[in-house]
Fold each of these.
Amino acid sequence: MISAFASLAGYGLFQDSSPGVIAFVLTFAAGAILTMLANTMMPEAFEHGGKLVGVVTTLGFAVAFTIHLLD
């Protein structure tokens, strides 16, 4: 319920915003996701998967960025 309200509020507040403001908000959200990954998921993945987890994660981000650039 809170997530739905936050989405609706964000849509209402930012629908007429400039591209710079939208880029800032998306960058902030991406940083929050990376922080969550680094704090909660990566230590457990490292514990179960070893050092290869970091390399695979970096490759995953590189592939996602490349796909974004090609889109």
Amino acid sequence: MDRIDAMKVFVAALDEGSLAGAARRLKRSPTAVSRALAFLETHVGVELLHRTTRTLKLSEAGERYAVACRRVLIDLEEADMLAVGERTAPRGMLTISAPPISGEEVLRPILDDFLDLHPTVSAQLLFLDRQVNLVDEGVDIALRVGHLPDSSLISTRVGGDVRHVVVASPRYLASHPHIKEPTDLAKHQIVAFTHLGLDRWNFTPAKGSSIPRTVKFTPRCIVNTVRAATASVVAGNGLTRLYSYQVAEYVRDGRLQVVLADAEYPPMPVHLLTPHGRMSVPKIRAFFDFAVPRLRTEFARMAAICTHGR
């Protein structure tokens, strides 16, 4: 049996979470999938997967081997693409990761249009509230909000105006004490979003000071999704703090209002990332060319809404 083919089966089983899922994805019989995995384990001399009827779990050796397999398969795909030339039409599976809200509402429509334009490309869009390791996890492209650490990843900036914003419904603000300074939040109900501060929020130093202002609070409610936080404050249950792009449409239609904008830290950038050397792959190059100008337009539009209310 071909070892590269067995590696593809191994990675497909991990991605799908089961042997049956790998069989469906690869259009093979479950027996053929099991045979390929058995061949691979015999070849390396260790158990790679702990298998039950419902789940797959990597062994310690399997975790290391999975990382190596993904790198090998990515390098092979890139070599094939380079061999046939850069003018080859984009084709194959494109795997993209993004934060849930920007991925669902900003990136997904752009990806839909891209797929319409390129019928030989298919896509897997992963909505994750964490930073993925693109190489180890077999991800071609990631949309990432925030400042980037030094790395070997190739990055293209698609936005520079994402910031934290504190928001509440106009109805709530009209019936509670006026908010002029961060310390005024002590008089208010807080809906805390787990990723942006459970019991305190930081703001820029006051004029003439170099010490950041920290506001401590006991939240009225704690939620772990953006949609729950926005729904709660739209209903008038207090204030919450989120990223500007996550609430832009609510601000645009008047359901939420931004407070303390002058006390927030400078905006953060947004980038599209891909592993080093992958920009020469036609499907990745084509997606960057297609998506970057559209993402820049959309993030600029949402920034303007949260800054000017329109």
